[in-house]
Design brief:
The protein is of the alpha/beta class and 488 residues long. The chain has two domains: 265 residues, Aldehyde Dehydrogenase, Chain A, domain 1, CATH 3.40.605.10; 183 residues, 3-Layer(aba) Sandwich (Aldehyde Dehydrogenase, Chain A, domain 2). The protein contains 15 helices and 22 strands. α2 packs antiparallel against α4. The longest helix is centred in the N-terminal third of the chain and has 22 residues. The chain binds nicotinamide-adenine-dinucleotide. Nicotinamide-adenine-dinucleotide binds next to α7 and α8.
Length: 488
């Protein structure tokens, strides 16, 4: 288990020797003491990245791609170890880290490994006699700040395209979940990434994070986290005119129409809200259901929710683990109290589990609350195993409820009516829409939001554009240019 900062190709202590205690959310025990990067450590990482960036950016794209492909292979070979590490650090059940998070991490690095030499420029037809070619140029050094909910997967989402495009990176994992990023850095060093191309600086947002955002040597900051902090990032980045990419919060609308396949919608909705204990920006946190099928759906859904096996995430049969920190568990519990005070009717869950074996962990039962769509808990991001329920009568009413929040990240709908499906998908205020499914992601499909969910996109060609700048080069091949000042 690596516990030190990764700077310039080696693991090093923080300059002032500071450390952060990383806790296991299952029982609160100390998993590791990890070096804590502060401003001076970030500065060191930027110097290392600046030294590495020019050669990395000039390397043949296929060679950069080959290193990313090798890293994907190394992650697959290390999958058993990496999934246990991620499970202990975050509380995600082992069955999910082993079957979803780590395979998706490898797949994303592989996708961008293949992308490196396919992302090409263009030639623009301009005036006769000129050749105008446009090449995507790397930005240089990019800063990447990630949250704690999918730490290993977010390494690939951010590092994959940035590295494929020829940038060097300085990444700050969340202070409570730094372990998998350090392991990815170790694997990258083993497969031959040049020193300084990847730098990992675990630390707090107010110190290490802010330094990344304000450092004049960093060309762009890609931030995933809460909307409140994201706004501060955009403000702080303005002083250096740094480019900013923001992946922020969400409040996913999941609309079930009267003609939906109800068993499929029940299963898809349960995955949409309870996977990863609901700690997902695209979680299906608002069920918006036609009143004629609400009772049947909710009977099935609450029975399923109550049957979910909550427990030690290291047990392969566990279906839902603890939330990732005590502070966050308390925040979600306090939202359940807010729901009650707003007249919400708790249909299932609503508290920590009674099992004494889970008493020291950050556990909460899968919770469903029927409440007015204007209630705080139906508009603010709770980010836990907590779903609100709202009924509607017409398609217009469903859309009005769905679009009544400030966020616009992911949303879903369940129907067998083809034109309704596409019409509602078009009218949903969201960057991503799933029809008859929920929460699908793929490295080729652009991921991101609108409104208070941020701007810019991860994944696909869009991500390569995020990490490159088009440079237009004009060549006078044989153009005859009359003198502008005839006297000369
Ligand atoms: P957060 O905003 O508190 O922290 C995110 C990261 O930013 C952490 O690494 C943190 O240390 C850092 N940070 C905090 N203050 C900072 C500052 N002043 N300057 C620079 N960096 C700072 O969010 P969180 O609680 O870790 O994560 C949960 C949030 O992330 C939720 O709102 C969730 O919706 C969002 N999220 C969004 C996406 C997406 O793709 N849109 C994906 C996952 C999570």
């Amino acid at each position: 288990m690596q516990t030190r900062l990764f700077i310039g190709g080696e693991f090093v202590d923080a300059l002032d020797g500071a450390t952060i205690e990383v806790l296991d959310p299952h029982d609160g025990s100390v998993l590791a003491k990890v070096a804590e990067a502060k401003e001076a450590d970030v500065d060191r990482a930027v110097v290392a990245a600046q030294a590495a960036a020019p050669a990395w950016g000039r390397m043949a794209a296929a060679d950069r791609g080959r290193l990313l492909l090798k890293l994907a292979d190394a992650i697959e070979a290390d999958a058993d170890n990496l999934s246990v590490l991620e499970t202990r650090d975050t509380g995600h059940p082992l069955r999910d880290t082993r079957n979803l998070d780590v395979p998706r991490t490898a797949a994303t690095f592989r996708y961008f490994g293949g992308m490196a030499d396919k992302f090409q420029g263009s030639v623009v037809p301009v005036e006769a006699g000129f050749l105008d070619y446009v090449t995507p140029q790397p930005l240089g050094v990019v800063g990447q700040i990630v949250p704690w909910n999918f730490p290993v997967m977010f390494c690939s989402w951010k590092m994959g395209p940035a590295l494929a495009a020829g940038n060097a990176i300085v990444m700050k994992p969340a202070e409570i979940t730094p372990m998998s990023a350090l392991r990815i850095a170790e694997l990258a060093a083993e497969v031959g990434f040049p020193e300084g191309v990847i730098n990992i600086v675990p630390g707090y947002g107010a110190t290490a994070g802010q330094r990344i955002v304000t450092h004049p040597g960093i060309a762009k900051v890609s931030f995933t986290g809460s909307t409140a902090v994201g706004k501060g990032v955009a403000r702080s980045a303005a002083d250096t005119l740094k480019q900013v990419h923001l992946e922020l919060g969400g409040k996913g609308a999941n609309i079930v129409f009267e003609d939906a396949n109800i068993p499929a919608a029940v299963g898809g909705t349960a995955f949409g809200i309870f996977h990863n204990q609901g700690q997902a920006c695209i979680a299906a946190s608002r069920l918006i259901i036609h009143e004629s099928v609400a009772q049947e759906f909710l009977e099935r859904f609450t029975a399923l929710a109550a049957s979910i096996k909550v427990g030690d995430p290291k047990d392969p049969s566990t279906e839902m683990g603890p939330l990732t920190s005590t502070m966050h568990r308390d925040r979600v519990l306090s939202y359940i109290e807010v729901a009650r005070s707003e007249g919400g009717q708790v249909l299932t869950g609503g508290k920590a589990p009674d099992d004494p074996a889970l008493a020291d962990g950050c556990y909460i039962e899968p919770t469903v609350v029927a409440v007015d769509p204007s209630a705080r808990v139906a508009c603010e991001e709770v980010f836990g195993p907590f779903m609100t329920v709202h009924t509607f009568r017409t398609d217009e009413e469903a859309l009005q409820i769905a679009n009544s929040v400030d966020y616009g990240l992911g949303g879903g709908l369940w129907t067998n009516n083809l034109s309704r499906a596409h019409r509602v998908a078009r009218d949903l205020h969201a960057g991503m829409v799933w029809i008859n499914s929920y929460k699908r992601v793929n490295p080729g499909s652009p991921f991101g939001g609108i409104g208070q969910s941020g701007y810019g996109r991860e994944m696909g060609f869009e991500a390569m554009r995020e990490y490159t700048e088009p440079k237009a080069v004009w060549v006078n091949v044989d153009a005859q240019i009359p003198p502008f000042y005839p006297r000369g």
